[in-house]
Amino acid sequence: MKKTILIVLLNAFLCQLFAQITYDEIASSKLNAVRQLKIKLPNDYNPDSEIIHPLIIVFDGDYLFEPVVGQLQFQTYFDDMPSSIVVGVVQANERFYDGYCDEVTGLPKESGLRFHEFVADELIPYLDSEYKTSKFKVAVGHDLMGNFINSYLFKEDPLFDAYVCLSPDLSGTVKDYLGERLEFFKDDIFYYMATSDKDLPGIRDAVIDADGQISQVNNQYLTYYFDDFKNDTHYTLVTSAIARSFDKIFELYKPLREKELEEKVLPYEGTLDKYLVDRYKRIEDLFGIKKPITEEEFDKVVKIAEQREDLESLEKIGKLAKKLDPESLLGTYYLAQYAEKVGKTKKAKKLYESALTLEDVSHINREFIFSKIDELTVVDTDNDEGEEEDDEDN
């Protein structure tokens, strides 16, 4: 019975997923042909909104598009990556010609060069004009096209910010110069590559050699990940590799979790409001999108401040939360806690009372606030003499 229910739910999910996939066509002067595109927009996509989304270009869109979309749906559900626009390039019988490269250099030539220019000069500008795309762009390719996407690394201004090379069929001198090329980037670049112990022998050997080079690169702007899967073939490694690549590429985007709290937030030198501001500024700078700090994340950082006995951070987190959302009681509540902890009971009581006039948050119980007000009311008023009635916004 449970198995039947799971199958029904899975089928319902897949039906919904594929119903949301649309098809488009783009006429290319570079290719002298019309190319079909598969497009999956975010569930919350609104063409009239100011919200923008990273763009993921899937080469081999004939068979690779759906696995990418499925993984995206899964990871965005848990807020592990931003909602993104996925575009699959349908290549079909043109695949060999699209990925045609010089045997010596490994770089596109003839039909491959025309396809390279089509993507850079026609496809990306078209998508940027038609959809709400951010500056962050990801290329995903397998086998022949896993090698092809490396050609964009060798442009003066690389077309993509992240490269997902799934068992790439590295050819020519590209495989010998990948590490050297990645050494010189001065802007953030992500590079992911995967093989497996049951991969095609020639492909596996070249990938292992390339990994040896790239692993030696010392470049603060390069984020490199490599997976060598066990018991997967050239084809079955694809789904695991897509999941791993997205998990790594969008690691910064994920909500604050225990590992980061323990390893980075707890020992942070400075007030914790600055950690939050810097973290989310980095997300905006990197992915070109604005991600709000959630109530849960504020709460987690406040708990770290308490663990550090860091009252200055508690006050500054309160001010930050109030600045970002003045209608929420969150910031005022933290400021009330700060005032209470430093002995300013009159001010704490006023702030708790003020919090009750503001919008609720999920993890703060209003009954608890009422109890704090009652508790502070019975405190001997002599304890409050001389308190500074400074504005909590200062």
Structure notes:
The protein is α/β, with parallel strands linked by helices and 394 residues long. It has 2 domains: 19-253, Rossmann fold (3-Layer(aba) Sandwich); 259-384, Serine Threonine Protein Phosphatase 5, Tetratricopeptide repeat, CATH 1.25.40.10. The protein has helices at residues 2-19, 61-77, 95-98, 111-130, 144-148, 174-182, 201-214, 237-249, 258-265, 272-287, 295-307, 311-324, 330-341, 345-355, 366-377, and strands at 21-28, 33-40, 53-58, 85-89, 133-142, 162-166, 189-198, 222-233. The longest helix has 20 residues, at 111-130. 47% of the residues lie in helices and 16% in strands. Mean pLDDT is 91; it is low at 5-10. It contains 15 helices and 8 strands. The protein is elongated, with a radius of gyration of 26 Å. Strands 1-2-4-3-5-6-7-8 form an 8-stranded mixed β-sheet, with helices on both faces. Helix 14 (345-355) packs antiparallel against helix 15 (366-377).
CATH second-level architecture of the largest domain: 3-Layer(aba) Sandwich
CATH fold annotation of the largest domain: Rossmann fold
The beta-strand count equals 8
CA-to-CA gap between the ends?
61 Å
CATH superfamily membership of the largest domain = Alpha/Beta hydrolase fold, catalytic domain
Task: Kindly report the spatial arrangement of strands forming the biggest sheet.
Answer: 1-2-4-3-5-6-7-8
Main sheet specs: 8 strands, mixed
InterPro entries: AB_hydrolase_fold, Esterase-like, TPR-like_helical_dom_sf
Keywords: Signal
Organism: Winogradskyella vincentii
Protein name: Esterase
